Amino acid sequence: MRNVTLILDDGSRFHGKSFGYEKPVAGEVVFNTAMTGYPESLTDPSYAGQLMTLTYPLVGNYGVPPFTIEANGLPTFMESEKIHAEAIIVSDYSEKYSHWNAVESLGDWLKREQIPGITGIDTRELTKVLREHGVMMGKIVFDDEPDNVPEATYAGVNYVDKVSCKEVIRYNEGEGKKKVVLVDCGVKSNIIRCLLKRDVEIIRVPWNYDFNSLEFDGLFISNGPGDPDTCDAAVQNIRKAMQNEKLPIFGICMGNQLLSKAGGAKIYKLKYGHRSHNQPVRMVGTEKCFITSQNHGYAVDNNTLGADWEPLFINMNDGSNEGIRHKKNPWFSAQFHPEAASGPTDTEFLFDEFVKLL
Questions:
Q1: How does pLDDT run across 181-236, given as a tens digit for each residue?
Q2: DSSP characters for 161-217?
Q3: Which member of 28, 201, 322, 339 is catalytic?
Q4: What share of the chain is helix, strand, coil (3-state, %, to 5)?
Q5: Is 337 a catalytic residue?
Q6: Is residue 312 pLDDT above 90, yes or no?
Q7: List 86, 253, 274, 277, catalytic entry
Q8: Tell me, which GO biological process terms does this entry list (predicted)?
Q9: Which is catalytic among the residues 274, 277, 296, 337?
Q10: Which pairs count as long-range contacts for 73-79, CB under 8 Å and 24+ apart, including other chains?
C-alpha cells in the first residue's frame, strides 16, 4: 500500500494508505455517518465531484455484490451504472470480506473503476474538522509523487449535466396504468424501481429536456449532485408544467430544490450537508417523526416560500427544510430519500401518495 496524504483547503493534512486505484484526485470532501451501504452510496450520482468520508470505522467487510443488469436496464444491487464518487476515505479497510452476495472486495472494485481509496485516516477527527469549518475542497496526493497535485473545482460546476441521461429512456412502455415523466438530474435506480413497482410507465428525460409536449399523467423530479442554481433550464420546464394546476408533481432531494425554485423560493448551501441514514424528520402539523436517509449539501430557505406554499417536513436536528407542498395543487416534495437504498424505508409511502394522485 502506497502512502497518501489528504490535503484540505485550510491546510489540514491526514496521512493514510492507498487501497484503491492509484491516481491523485481532488474534489469536495464530505462525510457520511451511515454504518452500511457503501455500494449504494458510491454508485449514487449525487456524490459526483465529491471525496466521500465514511465515519463508521470498519468498511469493506461485506465486499461488493455483482454488477448484474436486469431486463429493464437497471442494475440489480447498485444505484447507477458506475461509481460516481471521486474517492472514498475510511478509517479501517477490511481486506477480507464475507457475505452471501459478495463477488469481489471493495478495493478490487475501486481499482476496476479507477477510483482512489484511502485507509488509516482518523475519519472522525476529519469529520470534526469538516463540521467546524464546513465542507472544504481537498486533494489526495501520493507521497512519492509530491509534484502531481490535482486541481479541484466544485462550486458553479453543473454536475447534473454530467450524470443525467442523454436521451429519452422508457420503462414499462405501454404496460403501466399511468404515465410519469421522470426528469433525470442523477436519478438513483431505486427511485425507478419504486415507481415500476407501482405499475406506472416511466418516460425518463434528460435534466434540460422540454417534456411539456409529451402526454403524461404526472411529473417526477429526481435527486442529483451539485448546485441547483446551475439547473435553470429544468426550473423553467417545471414552471411551464405548473401551468396545469391539476398535474401531480413529486420531487426528491434535488427535485425538492428545483420544485421550490420553480415556485419562487431560494436555495442556500448548508455548512456541511446531510449525508446519513439517521436524519430525524417531522411531518409539519403532526407529531409524526421519521428516520430518513439523506445526501445533499444545499437546502430550501423556508422564509422564501411563497404564500401558496408551505413546508411539508422539517429536520429535527437543525430545523432546515425537508420538503414542501402547495396549499391547493397536487405538488409536493421530500428533501430526503423515501426510496433509500440502503434503508431506512419508513417513508416509501410517499410514492403511494404520488401514484394515488395520478
A1: 999 999 999 999 999 999 999 999 999 999 999 999 999 999 999 999 999 999 99
A2: HHHS-SS-EEESTTTSSEEEEEEESS--HHHHHHHHTTTEEEEEEETT--GGGS--S
A3: 339
A4: 20, 35, 45
A5: yes
A6: yes
A7: 253
A8: 'de novo' pyrimidine nucleobase biosynthetic process; 'de novo' UMP biosynthetic process; glutamine metabolic process; L-arginine biosynthetic process
A9: 337
A10: 73/169, 73/171, 74/189, 74/192, 74/193, 75/43, 75/189, 77/39, 77/101, 78/39, 78/40, 78/43, 78/189, 79/40, 79/43, 79/44, 79/45, 79/188, 79/189, 79/190, 79/341
9: left (phi over 0), alpha (psi -120 to 50) or beta: alpha
Domains present along the chain, CATH in parentheses: 3-142 (3.50.30.20), 159-356 (3.40.50.880)
* Selection from 156, 168, 188 nearest residue 81 by Cα: 188
> Read out DSSP for 50-86?
EEEEE-SSEESTT-B----B-TTS-BSSSSSSS--BS
Binding residues: 46, 224, 226, 254, 257, 295, 297-298
| Residue 339 annotated among the catalytic residues of the structure | yes
Return binding residues for L-glutamine.
Answer: 46, 224, 226, 254, 257, 295, 297-298
pLDDT digits (tens, 9 = 90+) for 59-72: 999 999 999 999 99
Contacts of 262 (CB under 8 A, 6+ apart): 235, 238, 239, 242
Helices marked H in the chain: 38-42, 106-112, 123-133, 159-163, 189-196, 232-241, 254-262, 349-357
